[in-house]
Amino acid sequence: MRKVSKIAFGTSLLLVAISLTACSAQSSSTTETAAACSAGALPTLTSGVISIGTDDPAYDPWFSNNDPSNAKGFESAVAYAVAKELGYPADKVVWIKAPFNTVIQPGTKPFDFDINQVSITAERANAVDFSSGYYDVAQAVVTIKGSKIANAKSIADLANAKLGAAVGTTSYSTITDIVKPKTDAAVFDSNDIAKQSLSNGSIDGLVVDLPTAFYIAAVDLTGGLIVGQFAPQAGGEQFGLVLSKGSSLTSCVTKAVDTLRSNGTLQTLADTWLATSVGAPVLK
């Protein structure tokens, strides 16, 4: 029979003790997190209500009629879904006007969290906290009414189109890697130049991210329209909810966003407000 030394035996006891302590600490941490996220009892700026910031004006299709409180539009609907997940029904939500530039600057915020198409970046994360992403930014095709691709319903329908995008962008790689048209993509130094080419008919369609597509189609082009959007690619740009740096709410808000993603709520809201209702179907 092999003899066990006192040193080895003592070391084994020490490892067991460390393991038990770690498990106890992890269990305690989990319990504390659960308690901290108690429904409707978070340490919000104003007890009993949750304050949500966004810009003014708040544009479609992210909001509707510049009224965040009507729960219409993708981001308004997401905000209320997050609030509900945190235990705050609609009548316990207060909206705060918060210009975009002030939202991403360092300093304490006048809201509990902000929702305003803010892309999550490492640089911005030095100044503010972000939740996990609530929206994966998609690419889209913009054209003009009457163009050869105005009625395209699928990626295959774009095969014979002359498409363009800004150089070095995800939009350009979407053309080359996903659409793969028969004609080489036109490359532009900026979207402004690309829009001019679309307006004068040099290209049939312009590929940009969906938020930009909404603006270009509605504001920059005469007769502009969105042909459709492409399914977001893994690891791409995401929008996140913004909180003050070091906010005690960040983990709870992130947990709520993750729950809404896993149970399909975020996808349902995106399909409703960023595809069906605004005529930007997913091209397959």
Q: What count of helical segments does DSSP give? A: 8
Overall pLDDT confidence: 89
CATH architecture of the largest domain: 3-Layer(aba) Sandwich
* Poorly predicted runs of 5 or more residues: 1-35
Question: In the CATH scheme, what's the topology name of the largest domain?
Answer: D-Maltodextrin-Binding Protein, domain 2
Q: Report the helical percentage.
A: 25-40%
Relevant CATH superfamily of the largest domain: Periplasmic binding protein-like II
Could you state the order of secondary-structure elements as H and E? Answer: HEHEHEEEEHEHEHEEHH
Computed Rg: 24 Å
What count of domains describes the coordinates? 2
Distance between the termini: 69 Å
Estimated structural class: alpha/beta
CATH class of the largest domain: Alpha Beta
What would your notes on this structure say?
There is one protein chain. The protein is of the alpha/beta class and 284 residues long. It folds into two domains: 127 residues, Periplasmic binding protein-like II (D-Maltodextrin-Binding Protein, domain 2); 91 residues, D-Maltodextrin-Binding Protein, domain 2 (3-Layer(aba) Sandwich). It is 36% helix and 18% strand. It has eight helices and ten strands. The strands form three sheets. A five-stranded mixed sheet has the order 7-6-8-5-9. A three-stranded parallel sheet has the order 2-1-3, covered by helices on one side. A two-stranded antiparallel sheet has the order 4-10. Helix 4 links the parallel strand 6 and strand 7. Helix 2 packs across helix 7 and helix 2 packs antiparallel against helix 8. It is elongated. The termini are far apart. The N terminus is likely disordered.
